[in-house]
Amino acid sequence: MPTLALIGRAIRVSVFVLLCVGFATRSGAADPPNVLFIAVDDLASTLGCYGDPLAKTPNIDRLAASGVCFLNAYNQLPLCNPTRASVMTGRRPDEIGVYDLDRHFRDQLPDVVTLPQAFQKRNYLAARVGKIYHYNVPASIGTDGFDDPPSWNQTVNPKGRDKADEALIFNAEPHRKISAALSWLAADGRDEEQTDGMIASEAIRLMEANRDKPFFLGVGFFRPHTPYVAPKKYFDLYPLDTVSLPYAPPGDRDDIPTAAFAHNCPIPNYNLDPLTLRKATQAYYACVSFVDAQVGRLLDAVQRLGLAENTIVVFWSDHGYHLGEHNGIWQKRTLFEQSARSPLIIRVPGAAGNGQPCRRIVEFVDIYPTVVSAAGIEAPPKLAGRDLATLLDDPLATWNGRAITQVLRPADDRLDTQVMGCSIRTSRYRYTEWAEGERGIELYDHRADPLEFENLAIKPDARHRAVIEALRAELREKASGKIPSAAVNPARL
Protein backbone atom coordinates (compact mmCIF):
# COMPACT_ATOMS: atom_id res chain seq x y z
CA MET A 1 0.00 0.00 0.00
CA PRO A 2 1.37 3.47 -0.81
CA THR A 3 2.13 5.74 2.09
CA LEU A 4 0.41 9.07 2.59
CA ALA A 5 3.72 10.76 1.79
CA LEU A 6 3.93 9.00 -1.58
CA ILE A 7 0.31 9.83 -2.33
CA GLY A 8 0.93 13.48 -1.49
CA ARG A 9 4.01 13.54 -3.67
CA ALA A 10 2.07 12.02 -6.57
CA ILE A 11 -0.64 14.66 -6.24
CA ARG A 12 1.95 17.46 -6.24
CA VAL A 13 3.63 16.06 -9.35
CA SER A 14 0.26 15.72 -11.11
CA VAL A 15 -0.63 19.34 -10.33
CA PHE A 16 2.78 20.48 -11.57
CA VAL A 17 2.34 18.56 -14.83
CA LEU A 18 -1.14 20.02 -15.35
CA LEU A 19 0.19 23.54 -14.80
CA CYS A 20 2.97 22.92 -17.31
CA VAL A 21 0.51 21.56 -19.87
CA GLY A 22 -1.75 24.54 -19.32
CA PHE A 23 1.16 26.92 -20.04
CA ALA A 24 2.09 24.96 -23.12
CA THR A 25 -1.41 25.12 -24.54
CA ARG A 26 -1.56 28.86 -24.01
CA SER A 27 1.68 29.06 -25.97
CA GLY A 28 0.06 27.21 -28.85
CA ALA A 29 0.88 23.54 -28.29
CA ALA A 30 -2.79 22.59 -27.78
CA ASP A 31 -5.06 25.66 -27.68
CA PRO A 32 -5.21 27.30 -31.12
CA PRO A 33 -3.17 30.52 -30.94
CA ASN A 34 -4.61 33.79 -32.19
CA VAL A 35 -2.88 35.78 -34.91
CA LEU A 36 -2.69 39.57 -34.88
CA PHE A 37 -1.51 40.44 -38.39
CA ILE A 38 -0.53 44.12 -38.59
CA ALA A 39 0.21 45.71 -41.98
CA VAL A 40 1.47 49.26 -42.50
CA ASP A 41 1.30 51.06 -45.85
CA ASP A 42 4.52 52.46 -47.39
CA LEU A 43 6.60 52.12 -44.22
CA ALA A 44 10.35 52.18 -44.78
CA SER A 45 12.77 50.91 -42.17
CA THR A 46 12.36 54.31 -40.50
CA LEU A 47 12.02 52.78 -37.04
CA GLY A 48 14.14 52.95 -33.93
CA CYS A 49 14.54 49.17 -33.86
CA TYR A 50 16.01 49.34 -37.37
CA GLY A 51 18.59 51.89 -36.28
CA ASP A 52 16.95 55.06 -37.58
CA PRO A 53 18.28 57.87 -35.37
CA LEU A 54 15.40 60.25 -36.09
CA ALA A 55 12.41 57.92 -35.70
CA LYS A 56 10.37 58.02 -32.51
CA THR A 57 8.65 54.63 -32.49
CA PRO A 58 8.58 53.32 -28.91
CA ASN A 59 5.71 50.89 -29.44
CA ILE A 60 7.02 49.12 -32.52
CA ASP A 61 10.40 49.07 -30.80
CA ARG A 62 8.93 47.27 -27.78
CA LEU A 63 7.32 44.73 -30.08
CA ALA A 64 10.74 44.16 -31.64
CA ALA A 65 12.23 43.78 -28.17
CA SER A 66 9.73 41.02 -27.35
CA GLY A 67 9.82 39.20 -30.69
CA VAL A 68 12.28 38.65 -33.52
CA CYS A 69 13.03 41.73 -35.61
CA PHE A 70 14.16 40.69 -39.09
CA LEU A 71 16.59 43.42 -40.08
CA ASN A 72 17.02 42.12 -43.63
CA ALA A 73 13.56 41.20 -44.90
CA TYR A 74 12.67 41.85 -48.53
CA ASN A 75 9.39 42.18 -50.39
CA GLN A 76 8.80 40.51 -53.75
CA LEU A 77 7.61 43.57 -55.72
CA PRO A 78 7.66 47.10 -54.25
CA LEU A 79 4.16 48.17 -55.22
CA CYS A 80 1.06 47.82 -53.04
CA ASN A 81 -1.11 45.35 -54.94
CA PRO A 82 1.59 42.90 -56.10
CA THR A 83 3.38 42.70 -52.77
CA ARG A 84 0.21 42.24 -50.73
CA ALA A 85 -1.07 39.60 -53.14
CA SER A 86 2.27 37.80 -52.84
CA VAL A 87 2.28 37.89 -49.03
CA MET A 88 -1.29 36.69 -48.72
CA THR A 89 -0.93 33.83 -51.22
CA GLY A 90 2.64 32.88 -50.38
CA ARG A 91 3.50 32.94 -54.10
CA ARG A 92 5.89 35.01 -56.18
CA PRO A 93 4.63 37.66 -58.66
CA ASP A 94 5.45 35.53 -61.71
CA GLU A 95 3.24 32.73 -60.36
CA ILE A 96 0.23 34.87 -59.50
CA GLY A 97 0.69 37.15 -62.54
CA VAL A 98 0.29 40.38 -60.57
CA TYR A 99 2.58 43.30 -61.46
CA ASP A 100 0.27 46.33 -61.41
CA LEU A 101 -2.44 47.90 -59.24
CA ASP A 102 -5.37 46.49 -61.25
CA ARG A 103 -4.95 42.72 -61.59
CA HIS A 104 -6.34 40.36 -58.95
CA PHE A 105 -4.40 37.22 -58.08
CA ARG A 106 -7.52 35.07 -58.55
CA ASP A 107 -7.54 35.98 -62.24
CA GLN A 108 -4.63 33.57 -62.58
CA LEU A 109 -5.05 31.32 -59.52
CA PRO A 110 -8.81 31.24 -58.82
CA ASP A 111 -8.64 28.49 -56.20
CA VAL A 112 -5.52 29.55 -54.31
CA VAL A 113 -5.84 29.31 -50.52
CA THR A 114 -4.88 32.61 -48.93
CA LEU A 115 -3.30 32.90 -45.49
CA PRO A 116 -6.54 33.81 -43.66
CA GLN A 117 -8.38 31.08 -45.57
CA ALA A 118 -5.94 28.53 -44.17
CA PHE A 119 -7.07 29.65 -40.72
CA GLN A 120 -10.75 29.61 -41.66
CA LYS A 121 -10.33 25.96 -42.57
CA ARG A 122 -9.37 25.38 -38.91
CA ASN A 123 -12.52 27.16 -37.67
CA TYR A 124 -10.87 30.48 -36.94
CA LEU A 125 -12.64 33.79 -37.26
CA ALA A 126 -10.79 35.59 -40.07
CA ALA A 127 -11.50 39.31 -39.80
CA ARG A 128 -10.04 42.38 -41.49
CA VAL A 129 -10.00 46.01 -40.40
CA GLY A 130 -8.54 48.49 -42.87
CA LYS A 131 -6.02 47.78 -45.64
CA ILE A 132 -4.65 44.26 -46.00
CA TYR A 133 -5.15 43.79 -49.73
CA HIS A 134 -4.73 46.73 -52.09
CA TYR A 135 -6.65 50.00 -51.76
CA ASN A 136 -6.44 53.17 -53.80
CA VAL A 137 -5.32 55.62 -51.13
CA PRO A 138 -7.00 57.85 -50.16
CA ALA A 139 -9.83 57.39 -52.69
CA SER A 140 -10.97 53.95 -51.47
CA ILE A 141 -10.75 54.57 -47.73
CA GLY A 142 -14.06 53.52 -46.19
CA THR A 143 -14.72 50.87 -48.84
CA ASP A 144 -13.65 47.25 -49.37
CA GLY A 145 -10.94 48.41 -51.74
CA PHE A 146 -9.44 45.71 -53.96
CA ASP A 147 -10.22 43.04 -51.39
CA ASP A 148 -10.52 39.27 -51.56
CA PRO A 149 -13.92 38.36 -50.05
CA PRO A 150 -13.17 34.61 -49.58
CA SER A 151 -10.34 35.55 -47.22
CA TRP A 152 -12.61 36.95 -44.52
CA ASN A 153 -15.59 36.10 -42.36
CA GLN A 154 -15.91 39.72 -41.31
CA THR A 155 -14.60 43.09 -42.56
CA VAL A 156 -14.68 46.62 -41.17
CA ASN A 157 -13.86 49.70 -43.27
CA PRO A 158 -13.49 52.80 -41.10
CA LYS A 159 -13.45 56.27 -42.62
CA GLY A 160 -12.11 59.13 -40.50
CA ARG A 161 -11.89 62.89 -40.62
CA ASP A 162 -8.81 62.68 -42.87
CA LYS A 163 -11.28 62.03 -45.70
CA ALA A 164 -13.38 65.04 -44.80
CA ASP A 165 -10.26 67.20 -44.45
CA GLU A 166 -8.77 66.40 -47.86
CA ALA A 167 -9.40 69.94 -49.08
CA LEU A 168 -6.99 71.17 -46.38
CA ILE A 169 -4.08 69.00 -47.57
CA PHE A 170 -1.05 70.83 -48.95
CA ASN A 171 0.08 69.42 -52.30
CA ALA A 172 3.66 70.23 -53.29
CA GLU A 173 2.92 68.99 -56.82
CA PRO A 174 -0.54 70.30 -57.75
CA HIS A 175 -0.39 68.62 -61.18
CA ARG A 176 -0.55 65.23 -59.40
CA LYS A 177 -3.31 63.74 -57.29
CA ILE A 178 -2.59 63.77 -53.55
CA SER A 179 -2.38 59.98 -53.70
CA ALA A 180 0.82 60.18 -55.77
CA ALA A 181 2.26 63.56 -54.81
CA LEU A 182 4.29 64.74 -51.86
CA SER A 183 1.32 66.06 -49.91
CA TRP A 184 0.57 66.44 -46.22
CA LEU A 185 -1.58 67.83 -43.43
CA ALA A 186 -0.86 68.46 -39.75
CA ALA A 187 -4.40 67.66 -38.69
CA ASP A 188 -6.59 68.94 -35.90
CA GLY A 189 -8.39 66.56 -33.60
CA ARG A 190 -7.63 63.32 -31.77
CA ASP A 191 -5.99 60.15 -33.02
CA GLU A 192 -9.29 58.31 -32.76
CA GLU A 193 -10.89 60.65 -35.32
CA GLN A 194 -8.40 59.69 -38.02
CA THR A 195 -9.01 56.58 -40.13
CA ASP A 196 -5.99 54.80 -38.67
CA GLY A 197 -7.09 55.65 -35.13
CA MET A 198 -10.53 54.23 -35.92
CA ILE A 199 -8.89 51.10 -37.35
CA ALA A 200 -7.10 50.53 -34.06
CA SER A 201 -10.34 51.08 -32.13
CA GLU A 202 -12.30 48.65 -34.30
CA ALA A 203 -9.56 46.03 -34.08
CA ILE A 204 -9.57 46.29 -30.29
CA ARG A 205 -13.34 45.90 -30.28
CA LEU A 206 -13.04 42.73 -32.35
CA MET A 207 -10.41 41.30 -30.00
CA GLU A 208 -12.65 42.05 -27.02
CA ALA A 209 -15.64 40.38 -28.68
CA ASN A 210 -13.69 37.29 -29.73
CA ARG A 211 -11.23 36.81 -26.92
CA ASP A 212 -12.62 33.36 -26.08
CA LYS A 213 -12.29 31.83 -29.55
CA PRO A 214 -9.38 31.68 -32.00
CA PHE A 215 -9.06 34.56 -34.42
CA PHE A 216 -6.90 35.69 -37.31
CA LEU A 217 -7.21 39.47 -37.24
CA GLY A 218 -5.73 41.48 -40.11
CA VAL A 219 -5.23 45.12 -39.12
CA GLY A 220 -4.10 47.36 -41.97
CA PHE A 221 -3.05 50.98 -41.43
CA PHE A 222 -3.10 53.47 -44.33
CA ARG A 223 -0.31 55.80 -43.24
CA PRO A 224 2.38 56.76 -43.95
CA HIS A 225 1.08 56.44 -47.55
CA THR A 226 0.57 59.82 -49.20
CA PRO A 227 -1.04 62.13 -48.35
CA TYR A 228 0.94 62.24 -45.11
CA VAL A 229 -1.86 63.06 -42.65
CA ALA A 230 -1.39 62.87 -38.88
CA PRO A 231 -2.43 64.94 -35.85
CA LYS A 232 -0.26 68.01 -35.28
CA LYS A 233 1.36 66.62 -32.14
CA TYR A 234 3.24 64.07 -34.23
CA PHE A 235 4.67 66.77 -36.47
CA ASP A 236 5.93 68.49 -33.30
CA LEU A 237 8.07 65.41 -32.57
CA TYR A 238 10.22 66.32 -35.58
CA PRO A 239 11.25 70.00 -35.60
CA LEU A 240 12.35 71.01 -39.07
CA ASP A 241 15.85 71.89 -37.89
CA THR A 242 16.35 68.20 -37.00
CA VAL A 243 15.28 66.95 -40.43
CA SER A 244 17.79 66.60 -43.25
CA LEU A 245 17.93 65.01 -46.68
CA PRO A 246 20.00 61.87 -47.30
CA TYR A 247 23.59 62.11 -48.53
CA ALA A 248 24.69 60.88 -51.93
CA PRO A 249 28.08 61.47 -53.52
CA PRO A 250 28.39 63.71 -56.58
CA GLY A 251 27.72 61.76 -59.75
CA ASP A 252 25.95 58.96 -57.86
CA ARG A 253 23.54 58.42 -60.76
CA ASP A 254 26.23 58.17 -63.44
CA ASP A 255 26.69 54.39 -63.09
CA ILE A 256 22.99 53.52 -62.61
CA PRO A 257 20.91 52.20 -65.57
CA THR A 258 18.03 54.40 -66.68
CA ALA A 259 15.49 51.63 -65.96
CA ALA A 260 16.56 51.57 -62.31
CA PHE A 261 14.80 54.89 -61.71
CA ALA A 262 11.04 54.67 -61.25
CA HIS A 263 8.79 56.15 -63.91
CA ASN A 264 6.75 58.01 -61.28
CA CYS A 265 9.84 59.95 -60.16
CA PRO A 266 11.78 60.62 -63.37
CA ILE A 267 13.07 64.03 -62.25
CA PRO A 268 15.34 64.11 -59.17
CA ASN A 269 13.41 65.29 -56.11
CA TYR A 270 10.46 66.15 -58.40
CA ASN A 271 12.42 69.37 -58.97
CA LEU A 272 11.27 70.61 -55.55
CA ASP A 273 13.35 72.85 -53.31
CA PRO A 274 15.17 71.47 -50.23
CA LEU A 275 12.86 73.15 -47.70
CA THR A 276 9.77 71.59 -49.26
CA LEU A 277 11.49 68.21 -49.31
CA ARG A 278 12.40 68.53 -45.64
CA LYS A 279 8.80 69.39 -44.80
CA ALA A 280 7.66 66.29 -46.69
CA THR A 281 10.17 64.22 -44.72
CA GLN A 282 8.91 65.71 -41.46
CA ALA A 283 5.34 64.81 -42.45
CA TYR A 284 6.34 61.26 -43.34
CA TYR A 285 8.02 60.71 -39.97
CA ALA A 286 5.01 62.27 -38.23
CA CYS A 287 2.83 59.61 -39.85
CA VAL A 288 5.25 56.88 -38.79
CA SER A 289 4.96 57.99 -35.16
CA PHE A 290 1.18 58.28 -35.48
CA VAL A 291 0.93 54.69 -36.72
CA ASP A 292 3.35 53.62 -33.99
CA ALA A 293 0.93 55.00 -31.40
CA GLN A 294 -1.92 52.95 -32.91
CA VAL A 295 0.24 49.81 -32.86
CA GLY A 296 0.84 50.55 -29.19
CA ARG A 297 -2.89 50.61 -28.54
CA LEU A 298 -3.20 47.15 -30.15
CA LEU A 299 -0.34 45.72 -28.09
CA ASP A 300 -1.79 47.19 -24.91
CA ALA A 301 -5.16 45.59 -25.68
CA VAL A 302 -3.57 42.18 -26.28
CA GLN A 303 -1.96 42.45 -22.84
CA ARG A 304 -5.06 43.82 -21.10
CA LEU A 305 -7.27 41.05 -22.49
CA GLY A 306 -4.89 38.34 -21.30
CA LEU A 307 -4.12 37.24 -24.86
CA ALA A 308 -0.37 37.89 -24.98
CA GLU A 309 0.68 34.32 -24.15
CA ASN A 310 -1.48 32.85 -26.89
CA THR A 311 -1.28 35.40 -29.69
CA ILE A 312 1.19 35.39 -32.57
CA VAL A 313 1.91 38.98 -33.60
CA VAL A 314 3.17 39.72 -37.10
CA PHE A 315 4.12 43.28 -38.08
CA TRP A 316 5.04 44.13 -41.67
CA SER A 317 4.99 46.85 -44.27
CA ASP A 318 4.12 46.10 -47.88
CA HIS A 319 7.44 47.50 -49.13
CA GLY A 320 10.11 50.05 -48.34
CA TYR A 321 10.14 53.71 -49.28
CA HIS A 322 12.55 56.34 -50.60
CA LEU A 323 12.96 59.73 -48.96
CA GLY A 324 15.38 61.30 -51.44
CA GLU A 325 18.16 58.72 -51.68
CA HIS A 326 20.44 58.56 -54.76
CA ASN A 327 20.11 62.30 -55.29
CA GLY A 328 16.35 62.48 -55.34
CA ILE A 329 14.43 59.18 -55.46
CA TRP A 330 11.07 59.32 -53.66
CA GLN A 331 8.43 56.74 -52.79
CA LYS A 332 8.68 53.12 -54.02
CA ARG A 333 8.97 51.07 -57.28
CA THR A 334 12.75 50.61 -57.24
CA LEU A 335 15.04 47.64 -56.62
CA PHE A 336 17.39 49.59 -54.40
CA GLU A 337 17.73 48.61 -50.77
CA GLN A 338 15.45 51.36 -49.45
CA SER A 339 12.50 50.11 -51.51
CA ALA A 340 13.13 46.36 -51.55
CA ARG A 341 13.83 46.08 -47.81
CA SER A 342 10.81 46.23 -45.51
CA PRO A 343 10.11 45.98 -41.79
CA LEU A 344 9.15 42.54 -40.49
CA ILE A 345 8.72 41.60 -36.82
CA ILE A 346 7.29 38.29 -35.64
CA ARG A 347 6.48 37.44 -32.03
CA VAL A 348 5.56 33.82 -31.35
CA PRO A 349 4.89 33.21 -27.63
CA GLY A 350 7.63 31.07 -26.16
CA ALA A 351 10.00 31.29 -29.13
CA ALA A 352 13.57 31.03 -27.88
CA GLY A 353 14.76 33.86 -30.11
CA ASN A 354 12.32 36.47 -28.79
CA GLY A 355 14.08 39.72 -27.94
CA GLN A 356 16.92 39.18 -30.41
CA PRO A 357 17.31 40.82 -33.82
CA CYS A 358 17.94 38.62 -36.85
CA ARG A 359 20.27 39.71 -39.64
CA ARG A 360 19.68 36.74 -41.92
CA ILE A 361 18.24 37.38 -45.39
CA VAL A 362 14.53 36.51 -45.50
CA GLU A 363 11.68 37.16 -47.94
CA PHE A 364 8.07 38.16 -47.58
CA VAL A 365 6.96 34.87 -49.16
CA ASP A 366 8.35 33.35 -45.96
CA ILE A 367 5.58 34.96 -43.89
CA TYR A 368 2.80 32.56 -44.92
CA PRO A 369 4.61 29.27 -44.14
CA THR A 370 5.99 30.72 -40.92
CA VAL A 371 2.63 31.84 -39.53
CA VAL A 372 0.77 28.62 -40.31
CA SER A 373 3.64 26.59 -38.87
CA ALA A 374 3.69 28.64 -35.66
CA ALA A 375 -0.07 28.07 -35.31
CA GLY A 376 0.21 24.32 -35.90
CA ILE A 377 -1.68 24.50 -39.19
CA GLU A 378 -0.66 22.44 -42.19
CA ALA A 379 0.62 24.60 -45.04
CA PRO A 380 -1.03 24.23 -48.45
CA PRO A 381 1.22 22.89 -51.21
CA LYS A 382 3.38 24.99 -53.53
CA LEU A 383 4.19 27.86 -51.15
CA ALA A 384 7.25 29.69 -52.43
CA GLY A 385 8.84 30.62 -49.12
CA ARG A 386 10.56 28.98 -46.16
CA ASP A 387 9.35 28.50 -42.60
CA LEU A 388 11.33 30.90 -40.41
CA ALA A 389 10.89 28.73 -37.29
CA THR A 390 14.63 28.02 -37.17
CA LEU A 391 15.39 31.74 -36.96
CA LEU A 392 12.58 32.39 -34.47
CA ASP A 393 14.31 29.95 -32.15
CA ASP A 394 17.87 31.03 -33.00
CA PRO A 395 18.28 34.28 -34.97
CA LEU A 396 21.97 33.44 -35.45
CA ALA A 397 21.31 30.02 -37.00
CA THR A 398 22.93 29.12 -40.31
CA TRP A 399 20.47 30.15 -43.02
CA ASN A 400 22.06 31.02 -46.41
CA GLY A 401 19.11 33.18 -47.35
CA ARG A 402 18.45 34.72 -50.75
CA ALA A 403 15.79 37.36 -51.48
CA ILE A 404 14.26 38.03 -54.89
CA THR A 405 12.57 41.34 -55.72
CA GLN A 406 11.31 42.45 -59.12
CA VAL A 407 9.46 45.35 -60.73
CA LEU A 408 7.97 46.02 -64.16
CA ARG A 409 8.54 49.34 -65.92
CA PRO A 410 6.11 50.69 -68.54
CA ALA A 411 7.23 51.96 -71.91
CA ASP A 412 7.66 55.74 -71.73
CA ASP A 413 9.87 58.48 -73.09
CA ARG A 414 12.86 56.76 -71.45
CA LEU A 415 12.13 53.14 -72.41
CA ASP A 416 10.78 52.08 -75.81
CA THR A 417 9.21 48.91 -74.39
CA GLN A 418 8.22 47.43 -71.06
CA VAL A 419 11.23 46.36 -69.01
CA MET A 420 11.27 43.83 -66.18
CA GLY A 421 13.85 44.34 -63.47
CA CYS A 422 14.90 41.46 -61.21
CA SER A 423 17.18 41.61 -58.19
CA ILE A 424 18.74 39.09 -55.82
CA ARG A 425 20.02 40.04 -52.35
CA THR A 426 22.48 37.85 -50.45
CA SER A 427 24.17 38.52 -47.13
CA ARG A 428 26.88 40.42 -49.01
CA TYR A 429 25.69 41.41 -52.48
CA ARG A 430 22.80 42.82 -54.43
CA TYR A 431 22.76 41.89 -58.11
CA THR A 432 20.12 43.45 -60.40
CA GLU A 433 19.46 43.08 -64.10
CA TRP A 434 17.03 44.92 -66.35
CA ALA A 435 15.47 42.98 -69.26
CA GLU A 436 17.86 40.12 -68.46
CA GLY A 437 20.76 42.54 -68.68
CA GLU A 438 19.88 44.13 -72.01
CA ARG A 439 18.90 47.39 -70.27
CA GLY A 440 21.65 47.31 -67.68
CA ILE A 441 23.01 45.42 -64.70
CA GLU A 442 24.03 46.43 -61.18
CA LEU A 443 26.18 44.84 -58.49
CA TYR A 444 26.63 46.32 -55.01
CA ASP A 445 28.84 44.98 -52.25
CA HIS A 446 26.95 45.62 -49.01
CA ARG A 447 29.95 44.81 -46.90
CA ALA A 448 31.78 47.87 -48.28
CA ASP A 449 28.91 49.89 -49.75
CA PRO A 450 25.63 49.49 -47.80
CA LEU A 451 24.05 52.54 -49.47
CA GLU A 452 24.68 51.14 -52.96
CA PHE A 453 26.73 54.02 -54.33
CA GLU A 454 29.24 52.05 -56.46
CA ASN A 455 27.94 49.85 -59.24
CA LEU A 456 30.62 47.18 -59.52
CA ALA A 457 29.04 45.76 -62.69
CA ILE A 458 30.26 48.69 -64.77
CA LYS A 459 33.91 47.57 -64.79
CA PRO A 460 33.94 44.25 -62.93
CA ASP A 461 37.21 42.57 -62.10
CA ALA A 462 37.54 38.78 -62.37
CA ARG A 463 36.16 38.21 -58.86
CA HIS A 464 33.10 40.36 -59.44
CA ARG A 465 32.48 38.77 -62.85
CA ALA A 466 32.35 35.41 -61.08
CA VAL A 467 29.90 36.83 -58.52
CA ILE A 468 27.69 38.17 -61.30
CA GLU A 469 27.61 34.84 -63.11
CA ALA A 470 26.73 32.92 -59.96
CA LEU A 471 24.01 35.33 -58.84
CA ARG A 472 22.54 35.61 -62.34
CA ALA A 473 21.96 31.87 -62.37
CA GLU A 474 20.33 31.92 -58.94
CA LEU A 475 18.16 34.90 -59.82
CA ARG A 476 16.79 33.41 -63.01
CA GLU A 477 15.69 30.29 -61.17
CA LYS A 478 13.24 32.42 -59.15
CA ALA A 479 12.19 35.34 -61.40
CA SER A 480 11.82 35.97 -65.12
CA GLY A 481 13.26 39.10 -66.68
CA LYS A 482 11.05 38.77 -69.73
CA ILE A 483 7.97 40.89 -70.41
CA PRO A 484 5.13 38.95 -68.73
CA SER A 485 2.28 37.37 -70.65
CA ALA A 486 -0.19 38.25 -67.86
CA ALA A 487 -2.49 41.21 -68.43
CA VAL A 488 -0.90 44.49 -67.34
CA ASN A 489 -2.27 48.03 -67.27
CA PRO A 490 0.78 50.22 -68.06
CA ALA A 491 -0.86 53.23 -66.43
CA ARG A 492 -1.07 51.33 -63.14
CA LEU A 493 2.47 50.00 -62.88
From TrEMBL:
Gene3D superfamilies in UniProt: Alkaline Phosphatase, subunit A
CDD domains: iduronate-2-sulfatase (cd16030)
Keywords: Calcium, Hydrolase, Metal-binding, Signal
PANTHER family according to UniProt: IDURONATE 2-SULFATASE (PTHR45953)
Family of this protein: Belongs to the sulfatase family.
Cofactor(s) listed in the protein's UniProt record: Ca(2+)
GO terms, molecular function: choline-sulfatase activity; iduronate-2-sulfatase activity; metal ion binding
Gene Ontology, cellular component aspect: cytoplasm
Name by which UniProt lists this protein: Choline-sulfatase
Ranges where the Sulfatase N-terminal domain occurs: 33-377
Organism of origin: Stieleria neptunia
EC number(s) given by UniProt: 3.1.6.6
Protein's UniProt keywords contain Cell inner membrane: no
One matching Pfam family: Sulfatase
